[in-house]
């Protein structure tokens, strides 16, 4: 009898162990090269008309969406920096005046880059906007996010390391088909620095490529390593020069001192963007800002979903970029656990991985507690550096799969996060080589503040 009980207990333990075992997907993408689309591809086409605005993109102009910053480029001459906007395409009753700038990078001179912030917007409202007055006018539209509130639903697209290959085009097309209200972009945009002499024409082509989405909904930008463009051999010693000139962020509204770390409040989500390639050591501006953000400015009663974006992942079981995020993890992980952050999203590693709620906050260099342990207060860490860039797939996962890793796959794709209310959000990852609606990994998350239940069952 005693043996029977012991056997049954052993069987139950084995079943429990199997139930939480991580999955390394056996799916294998087609054996084909990751190839950049040629510069004469349709997705890079320059819009018709003299000095027509091109590379149009928007992002939040304040923390909550009552302002929207519109950016575009004119190639022939400066033209107008005015944007007219309103609730009807036929009646653009309001106007805002922007500014323009140009920059030089080695042997490249940019077009005229315009930025204009539209203010006084109402939440959850569709607006039409137009620019290019005096030459060729182009008109677009966007819908502002709802007023921040605990049960305000919202659907984010999650994209990282996109680039401008044929796989990149699949990623963007699949995201468009699956639908979303805004994109949380996890860094590494154009990969212009991968071309000889950091060919900045590839910044222009990339912006024309993504215009079909980002002109109509805000993308929230995270700076990655391919945004650095630091190249002393070319005389370029100012980091992030093209990125800063082209992609503004609402960092001042968030009380930040630099455009690389900031926060926004979208519907029921408080989104914090961190900078993996800016100083974050103790007492640095980013360190001081994050401390104040987590302790003073996060209000889970209004925006219950607390989401952190960064480029270099803290938990990564791929040998590609292995442990590159470790120093930032050591600096900030305990803060995120104490704050009960729901999700941490990263890019950088060109594959997909979803972790369970684990933390490694007990470890120091003398106690030997170096193994991440289950922690219900910890975030779920997700790596989505799989947008489709020219560098290809990272298909060298460590073995065995660590206990904290729930699902991983070496494929290109994108994810969506659909927040339903203050307690539940549905997350889904779509690989590119399935149909647009096919889901390769999905899970329901429960909120760490309002419903901190065990959601590590998948």
Sum this structure up briefly.
This protein has a domain at 148-187 and 260-457: Metallo-dependent phosphatases (Purple Acid Phosphatase, chain A, domain 2), CATH 3.60.21.10.
Task: Write structural notes for this entry.
With 458 residues, the protein is of the alpha+beta class. It has a domain at 148-187 and 260-457: Purple Acid Phosphatase, chain A, domain 2. The protein is 17% helix and 26% strand. It has six helices and 26 strands. The protein has an eight-stranded mixed beta sheet with strand order 1-23-19-22-18-17-16-15, with no helix packed on it. A six-stranded mixed beta sheet has the order 14-13-12-24-25-26, with helices on one face. It has a four-stranded antiparallel beta sheet with strand order 2-3-9-6. Strand 24 (413-419) and strand 25 form a beta hairpin. It is globular. It starts with a helix and ends in a 12-residue tail after the last strand. The model is unreliable at 1-19 (pLDDT under 50). It catalyses: a phosphate monoester + H2O = an alcohol + phosphate. Belongs to the metallophosphoesterase superfamily. Purple acid phosphatase family.
Layout of strands and helices, then pairs:
Elements: H1 2-19, E1 23-24, E2 54-60, E3 68-74, E4 82-86, E5 94-97, E6 99-101, E7 104-105, E8 108-109, E9 112-118, E10 126-131, E11 138-143, E12 154-159, H2 166-178, E13 182-185, H3 201-214, E14 219-220, H4 241-246, E15 262-266, E16 269-273, H5 285-297, E17 305-309, H6 326-338, E18 343-346, E19 352-355, E20 358-359, E21 373-374, E22 380-384, E23 405-409, E24 413-419, E25 424-431, E26 441-446
Parallel strand pairs: 1-23, 12-13, 13-14, 16-17, 17-18, 18-22
Antiparallel strand pairs: 2-3, 3-9, 4-5, 4-10, 6-9, 7-8, 10-11, 12-24, 15-16, 19-22, 19-23, 20-21, 24-25, 25-26
